[in-house]
Design goal:
Rossmann fold; 8 strands; elongated; eight-stranded mixed β-sheet; alpha/beta
């Protein structure tokens, strides 16, 4: 199994909600044959049915991958139905938040190849970032194909230990919500300074979008980009003096935010 024969692999997708749909769109765009995809979903949409994939039909005896895209609380109920694929060469790829590899091994068997991944919501537009970690049962070539599957919804990074997944959840997994709140806060601040709400929101959205794209596309680190647009005694410096306050500025607040989300991720993973 190599990336060159990516389109010839067979795959079962469990769940086709927002993230499952985003991945499915990406796979088809990358050349995955619709006839080689089976989707299990209790409420398939017309969009899904019209794609030409196999929906709630007889499953293949030996798929290459089974992608778990159902809600974490549904896993103990749903996954045992697929346990007969365990302890084989079938690779299980999970994007279920907070469900550890050991939890999957207890349900599917200790010899089951399992990859745990954490995407984030910009995956819906192909601009997500996904972190992945695998157990020792996953062959190198299967891990490469899994990376190709996940790259259909954005960038992919590999972790060195599963313990890092909690911090990933606290940073990039929950991070889009932080950005949405930042946009709201910027817009509200602009409105308080006299702008009408619609204009303030438009300015805030495009400022965050443009700043993010500039940072992502630049070889310079964000600190240098910030310094380059901060004139001495200028307006940006006046704002940053508040934002960069060492005691009650943005940095300590973000640190507490990511720490709280990371801690909650650990709690959920430990039941």
């Amino acid at each position: 199994m190599t990336q060159e024969n990516f389109e010839r692999n067979t795959l079962i997708l469990l769940g086709c909600g927002k993230m499952g749909s985003a991945m499915l769109k990406g796979w088809l765009a990358k050349g995955f044959e619709p006839k080689n995809i089976w989707v299990e979903d209790p409420y398939p949409s017309d969009w899904l049915i019209d794609l030409g994939v196999n929906v709630n039909s007889k499953l293949p005896s030996s798929p290459t991958f089974i992608c778990i895209a159902i809600k974490p609380q549904m896993i103990p109920q749903i996954l045992p139905k697929f346990s007969y694929y365990g302890n084989s060469q079938v690779v299980f790829l999970s994007i279920a938040a907070g469900v550890t590899i050991s939890s999957f091994e207890s349900l599917l068997g200790q010899k089951t190849p399992i990859i745990r991944a954490m995407p984030n919501t910009p995956a819906e537009i192909g601009l997500g970032i996904t972190a992945k970690i695998a157990n020792k049962n996953v062959p190198k070539d299967a891990l490469e194909v899994a990376g190709n599957l996940l790259s259909a919804i954005g960038e992919v990074v590999s972790l060195t230990s599963e313990e890092q997944m909690d911090a990933v959840t606290g940073l990039s997994g929950s991070g889009p919500a932080y950005v949405f709140y930042l946009i709201d806060a910027l817009a509200a601040a602009g409105h308080k300074q006299g702008l009408d709400k619609e204009l303030a929101m438009r300015l805030a959205k495009m400022t965050v979008l443009g700043g993010g794209q500039l940072a992502a596309g630049s070889t310079a680190v964000p600190e240098n980009l910030r310094v380059n647009v901060t004139s001495p005694n200028g307006t940006t410096e006046a704002g940053l003096n508040i934002l960069m306050n060492s005691e009650n500025g943005l940095a300590p607040l973000i640190e507490k935010t990511v720490a709280a989300a990371t801690a909650r991720s650990k709690e959920l993973a430990n039941g």
